[in-house]
Amino acid sequence: MDISATAIRWATERSEGLDVRFRHGDAFATEGSYDLVYDSGCFHHLPPHRRIGYLALLDRVLAPGGHFALTCFTAEEGTATPDADLYRQSGLSGGVGYSPDDLRWIFQDLTEVDLRRMTEEPPDSPAFGKSFLWTALFRKEVQRTDAGVRQAEKP
Ligand SMILES: C[S@@+](CC[C@H](N)C(=O)[O-])C[C@H]1O[C@@H](n2cnc3c(N)ncnc32)[C@H](O)[C@@H]1O
C-alpha cells in the first residue's frame, strides 16, 4: 500500500510476473486483521506526533500472535534532531533517524524478535540491502485467559 499513485505504478512495473496486489491509499485507513504487517520505509517519514496514530493502527490491524516487520533509517542516515526541535524547523530533513533503543521504546508493547542493521547488498545483487537501515521484527503476544480464550495482551 502506498499513498502515492506514482509509487504504486513503479511497484507494479517492477513486479511483473509476480502475484502481488498493490493498493493505492492511506495506510492509516487500513481495515481488517493481518498476521503480518511490513512497513518498508514509511515510519521514518512520520513526524513524532503521528507515532500515536501509528501505534493505534498497529494495535487495530495486527492479529494476536501476528508479526510486525519494520525497515527504517538509522540515526546516521536520518536526522538526529530531537523530536521537539523538529517542530522548530520546517520538515523532517528527509526522515527521522532512530536508535535501537528508540525503536524498543516506541514498540515496547510488542515483543522483539530481531532488530539489526540490514545487510548491505552489492549493486548487482537481485536482493535489496542497505546498511544505513534498521530491519526489525516484533511479535504481538497472545495470552490465554482463565477461561481458555485466546486474546490480545493489550485491549
Ligand atoms: C521511502 S518510501 C518507501 C517506498 C517503498 N515502500 C519501498 O520500500 O521502496 C516511503 C513511502 O511511504 C509512502 N507513504 C507516506 N505516508 C503514507 C501513508 N500514510 N500511507 C501509505 N503510504 C505512505 C510514500 O508515498 C513513499 O512512497
TrEMBL record:
Residues forming coiled coils: none
Task: Specify the Methyltransferase domain's residue ranges.
Answer: 1-66
* GO aspect biological process, one term: methylation
Question: Which of UniProt's keywords are assigned here?
Answer: Methyltransferase, Transferase
Q: Name one Pfam family in it.
A: Methyltransf_25
Q: A GO molecular-function term, please? A: methyltransferase activity
Write down the superkingdom of origin: Bacteria
Q: What's this protein's name?
A: Methyltransferase domain-containing protein
Q: Which organism is it from?
A: Lentzea waywayandensis
